[in-house]
Amino acid sequence: MKRPTIADVARHAGVSKGAVSYALNGQPGVSEATRQRILAIATEIGFSRSSAARALSAATAGAVGLALCRPARILGIEPFFMALISGVEAELSARSYALTLQVVADPDAEIAVYRRWWGERRVDGVLICDLRTDDRRIPALEQLQLPAVVIGGPGGTGALGSLWSDDAAALTETVEYLVALGHRRIARVAGLPDLRHTEIRTDAFAAVCRRLGLVDAVTVWSDYSGEEGGRATRRLLSSAQRPTAVIYDNDVMAIAGLSVAQEMGLTVPGDLSIVAWDDSPLCRLVHPPLTALGRDIPAYGAHAARQLLAVIGGEPVSRVQDETPHLTPRGSTAPPPRGR
Amino acid sequence: MKRPTIADVARHAGVSKGAVSYALNGQPGVSEATRQRILAIATEIGFSRSSAARALSAATAGAVGLALCRPARILGIEPFFMALISGVEAELSARSYALTLQVVADPDAEIAVYRRWWGERRVDGVLICDLRTDDRRIPALEQLQLPAVVIGGPGGTGALGSLWSDDAAALTETVEYLVALGHRRIARVAGLPDLRHTEIRTDAFAAVCRRLGLVDAVTVWSDYSGEEGGRATRRLLSSAQRPTAVIYDNDVMAIAGLSVAQEMGLTVPGDLSIVAWDDSPLCRLVHPPLTALGRDIPAYGAHAARQLLAVIGGEPVSRVQDETPHLTPRGSTAPPPRGR
DNA sequence: GACGCCTACTGAACCGGATAAGCTGAGCCA
DNA sequence: TGGCTCAGCTTATCCGGTTCAGTAGGCGTC
Q: Which nucleotide does the CA of B5 lie closest to, via C1'?
């Protein structure tokens, strides 16, 4: 099937290629009557602009890149990314931008992908996930001058735009809630320690525990997987001074933790309270349903996409704080058992 | 930062643009010595080909499209798609193809996306998920002559290439396994009824139950979400002749079902056996861990991607059966309670 | 040594748009 | 009536590759 080009439209309309281009782009240079006629003909013969030709002459790819740097095993199970992608995608497709996705093995491979995308002019900008402490990707992107928005922060994002949620406030609220219920021994199963948001949460946790005089507060690190989350929980619950409440850095580990607790004969929330970060439908699937820190992840992604398109459009980079995750109490939290 | 073009490489090497193009593409037309010199210079000055220019003149986009037609809510929670994408992606990036992703609301929007991609020459081919009965996308793609591989089948894929797993055999094996344990009243919570693979599984379920003389076999339909899966389970377990085993069409519904059963005071697997389709890490998270029908989903995606690249490369379309899902018995299945 | 043939290249056209620069005729004014 | 402006177009060039039609030079051959 032959694809119509701008020349076909021009011939049908009896005008030049240039006139068609002006008409399609809403630029001055053609009368309103001619513009309408050209647009009608374009629609009629099913014309759409070749993204390649457009990219070549307009020096814009019409696409945004997203590189995900987590093993497939973890990517698959965490609802976070898919929710984020669907939000990003909704915003992009509304503005006729495409999303180019790549799964990479490590940060160096990710930087290599950015270099390639830049060299091939394949994308107009990129979204960065999983901000790390001293993230090598930041200077690399600054050097390439590839428009980018970091989903994460605040801080450590160099001159790039960024979008973050106030994880410190959310964690503080959670600890205060648990303390109000009567808990004094609260543990936290954290995600990968070199991620910036893990660090932020860890600092906030330490700060609020110090402020509230919780001396037994302990953080253990994990990798977001159910296996590791379960293992960490088993370790915590086997200790002499076992916690009466555990906060997990994602939903998958929280569910694994719930399962381990029940396996060990503890009732939730009677013996142990559980709070999950990222309130996905998974949290409502299990019994008891999990108290969770939720936020609108698709909206978060859409927001980031909007910000990136603004940077691509030449607006100054912005650093924006998004909605703070809010605590939804459900059946997995209650006062601690008496005498503990 | 200025990006080097093929002309820059040519100038440095003291040859023409054409010679550089031949050298880069491994085509005859330059001596081996010159080719090496050109490649060295290209690497040295950090040259990579503009995907736009390449797409324009070579009439190939260097990208493959994937449109996902499920609400964000369900997309996010099902590990299947992310696992599939990571497999597809691994295969594509090994061959320097990009993956263009789009989330759409319904099949008509999906067809519109294909038309747009085709018109814009944005992709060289597409992967089709969630094959339906009398799928309108098939004739639309045939008409566009856009290379495509359907992930699903067998049957109903028109002249397009396809890749499927033998769901009928897997379901039959599962029912036989449950019957061998002693179950006679087996129910199935199915996915969306207009999906082709749901139909295939439903037919296979009816056939094996007839063959084994299970008169109480019942199938109820759901939408893959935890809410609906839980609701369906509650209905099933409240009936007078309640089943002793339930097979779920995905892992999320199985977990919801497990939760509902426990809530209703039934023990799993003592009172009720549960089997999940798609063995994700989620199945091992819950207690008891779920007996599940598993397969290597990233490999499935990689396989489909390879098939699509072959079609794009001009090879004849192929219809291939992939690995059959295999049953992994875990703690959620056991003989039925006595007297039932 | 004239001829053909092959290798290794060059030059130019082309892909399909965007856009700067040039052209034309209508309208207005002095 | 001549000159000016300006809307509304056309023409030509460019983006950065690929590819086809040459062509120069070396080599073998009768």
A: D16
Residues on chain A touching B56 (C-beta within 8 angstroms): 50, 52-53, 56
Q: What is the pLDDT of residue A155?
A: 87
> Under an 8 A CB cutoff, do B79 and A81 touch?
no
For the cut 60, the answer to whether the pLDDT of residue A27 exceeds it is yes
Question: In whole angstroms, what is the distance from residue A192 CA to residue A328 CA?
Answer: 24
> Taking a C-beta distance cutoff of 8 angstroms, is the pair A162, A221 a contact?
no
Q: Which nucleotide is nearest to A34 (CA to C1')?
A: D8
Nucleotides of C under 7 A from a protein CB: 7-21
Residue A192 CB: number of other CB atoms within 10 A? 17
Q: Which residues of B touch A145 (CB under 8 A)?
A: 1
Instruction: Give the model's confidence band at A70: pLDDT under 50 very low, under 70 low, under 90 confident, else very high.
Output: confident
pLDDT above 90 coverage of chain A, percent: 86
Q: What is the pLDDT of residue B78?
A: 79
Would the pLDDT of A73 be above 70?
A: no
User: What does the alpha-carbon distance between residue A166 and residue A159 come to, in Å, rounded to a whole number?
Assistant: 20
Q: Categorize the per-residue pLDDT at B73 as very low, low, confident or very high, splitting at 50, 70 and 90.
A: low
The shortest C-alpha distance from B210 to chain A (Å) reads 33
CA distances from A48 to A217, B50, B116, B121 (A): 61, 21, 7, 9
Q: Which nucleotide is nearest to B49 (CA to C1')?
A: D17
pLDDT of B300 above 60: yes
Beta bridge partners of B293: B277, B327
Q: Which nucleotides of D are covered by protein (CB under 7 A)?
A: 7-12, 14-21
Task: Please name the residue ranges forming H helices in chain A.
Answer: 6-13, 17-24, 32-44, 51-58, 72-77, 79-94, 107-119, 137-144, 167-181, 196-211, 226-238, 251-263, 281-285, 297-312
Which residues on chain A are in Cβ contact (under 8 Å) with B142?
none
Q: Which two tokens stand for residue B68?
A: 């996902």
A25 CA vs D2 C1’ separation (Å)? 38
Sign of CA dihedral A150, A154, A158, A163: positive
- One-character DSSP codes across B34-83: HHHHHHHHHHHTT----HHHHHHHH---SEEEEEE-S-HHHHHH-HHHHH
Per-residue pLDDT tens over the stretch A271-327: 999 999 999 888 998 889 999 999 999 999 999 999 999 999 999 999 999 999 999
Q: State the pLDDT confidence band at B45, using cuts at 50, 70 and 90.
A: very high
CA A4/CA A1 separation, integer angstroms:
9
Rounded Cα distance between A263 and B288, Å, is: 9
Whether the Cβ atoms of residue A274 and residue A248 lie closer than 8 Å to each other: yes
CB A79, CB B79: distance < 8 Å? no
The Cα–Cα gap between B301 and B81 comes to: 9
Average pLDDT, integer, range B312-336: 96
